[in-house]
């Protein structure tokens, strides 16, 4: 008789012995006591990269550098070149617009207008040489300096009155209720409407011109200061008062620094308004300034010189507005992802330079 075939072990017996899947196979090992293999997301200092796209050849994170050092993105040099290219493009388009306007001016006065007509006397071919002659002879520089001096004097008066009044009417509810309708009424009166009154009361000379400039500029300054105080966080003043700060200390340490941005915007608007007002104001009762130069050229029938003065007015106004815009532009420094500023410690700057 053949030997009886041994019975196979049951699953219960295998579990009792401690067998597991593939543990009895030759070379097999019991993996229950082996340490679990960690993925890279569990490593200290590593981030979970499973949900991030792998869009770079080197490195799992978008923007990672081959050596693992921070953001890749665009190199610093290429970013600088790109910004310079954009600025150059904007400047080129602006210059192209000015050239197109000059071409249209020449087309109207030299091509469309008939010879000997009054319109032809305003040609840029005659105005540009007259503009150069104004500066070479010194008259244009004199008129320009006088106008700028009057402008700055009127703006200084507007700031001296506008800022305290703007702050006061917001800090005091009763004062705001008392002066609100009056200020709205005066603000709606054109500054040039005060010209006869200014000449009668202040006489002839620089005083009425400076007064008209101040009247034109005080309202943007006042409203800018008031808007800045309105935008302040009330908790700042409450904390300062709880710490024992006086009203003067609150004004110098919280209010004035807090309204700086709104006040800068109001000053820029005031500069534009004052520049519009000062030219007609100088046409009455003065013997210098750009407004007087326009009136004098008209009386002498020097239309080429008149257009030259108009070009000076536009160019100087453009320069003043650009300067005011640059001075009032907020800082573009942005914090890094780690919270540090771009102009950080010197070692960071050296590292950035080496990275370049």
Question: How would you sum up this structure, described in words?
Answer:
It is built from 13 helices and no strands. It is flat and about 90 Å long. Among the domains are: 80-113; 123-328, MetI-like fold (Orthogonal Bundle), CATH 1.10.3720.10. The chain is an all-alpha fold and 356 residues long. Helices cover 64% and strands 0% of the residues. The protein has helices at residues 11-17, 76-112, 124-137, 139-171, 173-187, 195-202, 206-231, 234-242, 247-258, 260-281, 290-299, 303-328, 346-355. Helix 3 (124-137) packs across helix 12 (303-328) and helix 6 packs across helix 7 (206-231).
Q: What portion of residues belong to β-strands?
A: under 5%
What integer is the average pLDDT? Answer: 75
CATH topology of the domain at 123-328: MetI-like fold
Task: Report the C-alpha radius of gyration, rounded.
Answer: 38 Å
**How many DSSP helices?**
13
What is the CATH H-level superfamily of the domain at 123-328? MetI-like
What's a quick, concise take on this entry?
The chain has 356 residues and is mostly helical. The protein has 13 helices and no strands.
Notable characteristics:
356 residues, mainly alpha, MetI-like fold, flat, disordered N terminus
């Amino acid at each position: 008789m053949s030997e009886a075939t041994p019975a196979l072990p049951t699953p219960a017996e295998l579990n009792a012995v401690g067998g597991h899947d593939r543990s009895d196979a030759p070379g097999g090992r019991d993996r229950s006591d082996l340490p679990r293999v960690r993925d890279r997301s569990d490593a200290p200092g590593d981030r979970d990269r499973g949900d991030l796209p792998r869009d770079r050849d080197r490195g799992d994170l978008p923007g990672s550098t081959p050596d693992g050092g921070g953001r890749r993105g665009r190199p610093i040099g290429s970013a600088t070149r790109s910004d310079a290219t954009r600025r150059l493009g904007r400047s080129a388009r602006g210059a192209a617009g000015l050239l197109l306007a000059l071409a249209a001016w020449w087309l109207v006065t030299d091509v469309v207008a008939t010879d000997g007509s009054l319109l032809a006397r305003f040609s840029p071919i005659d105005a540009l040489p007259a503009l150069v002659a104004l500066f070479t002879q010194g008259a244009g520089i004199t008129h320009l300096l006088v106008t700028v001096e009057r402008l700055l004097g009127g703006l200084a008066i507007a700031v001296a009155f506008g800022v305290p009044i703007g702050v006061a009417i917001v800090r005091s509810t009763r004062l705001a209720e008392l002066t609100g309708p009056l200020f709205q009424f005066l603000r709606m009166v054109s500054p040039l409407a005060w010209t006869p009154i200014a000449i009668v009361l202040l006489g002839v000379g620089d005083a009425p011109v400076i007064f008209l400039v101040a009247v034109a500029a005080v309202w943007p300054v006042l409203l800018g200061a008031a808007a800045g105080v309105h935008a302040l966080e009330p908790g700042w003043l409450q904390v300062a008062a709880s710490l024992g700060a006086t009203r003067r200390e609150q004004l110098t340490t919280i209010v004035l620094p807090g309204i700086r941005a709104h006040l800068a915007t109001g000053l820029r608007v005031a500069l534009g308004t004052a520049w519009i007002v000062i030219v007609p104001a100088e046409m009455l009762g003065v013997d210098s300034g750009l407004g007087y130069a326009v009136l004098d050229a008209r009386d002498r029938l020097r239309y080429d010189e008149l257009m030259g003065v108009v070009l000076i007015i536009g160019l100087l106004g453009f320069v003043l507005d650009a300067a005011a815009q640059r001075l009032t532009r907020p800082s573009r420094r942005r914090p890094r992802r780690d919270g540090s500023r771009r102009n950080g410690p010197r070692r960071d700057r050296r590292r950035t330079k080496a990275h370049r």
